[in-house]
Amino acid sequence: MKSKRLLFCFILLFQLILIGCSKCDEIRRNIIGQYGIEKKGVEIKDSTKGKDASEFLKITSDNKFTLYERYEEKGLQGEWKILSCKTVENNLSEDVPESIIEFKINKQKSLATFRDRRLTFDYPKNLYGERYKCLWYVKLNMKR
Question: Is residue 122 assigned to a domain?
């Protein structure tokens, strides 16, 4: 009896781990691509600090990303990784996947939330120090 209960708990735990990993894999595939800054979402907190936000963000499958001013121009590079994956309810009362992504340039780490094809960087953990209160990058439909 005790071994059956232990086996049941083991199978349940294995399924939970498998489902959790597959959710992160799906989000990972959805994150990869080209992003453009959404001008309406940019709120400048302090115009004297930091630099202007880059127009484009490119995220690749090898855990690298590039920020650049013009499409396909050489830009600032760094690394990214998924910290957490979960399902949340959006404004339309639909369950959608959401994840927290860590971006790292040199030794500076920044956090963003990925949901509904949008990366949201919040103050103060964004790519540009203390300059922006909120920063949005929206996924573009580009094939490259």
Answer: yes
pLDDT single digits (tens) 53-112? 778 889 999 999 998 876 666 778 899 999 988 888 877 888 888 899 999 988 888 889
Structural domain contains residue 129: yes
**Beta carbons of 35 and 58 less than 8 angstroms apart:** yes
Structure-token pair, residue 114: 């990925």
Q: What is the pTM of this model?
A: 0.71
Tokens of 40: 């309406």
The tally of domains found in the chain comes to 1
Per the structure, the complete domain to which residue 72 belongs is given by 2-139
Report residue 106 as tokens. Answer: 């040199």
Query: Per the domain annotation, does 144 fall within a domain?
Result: no
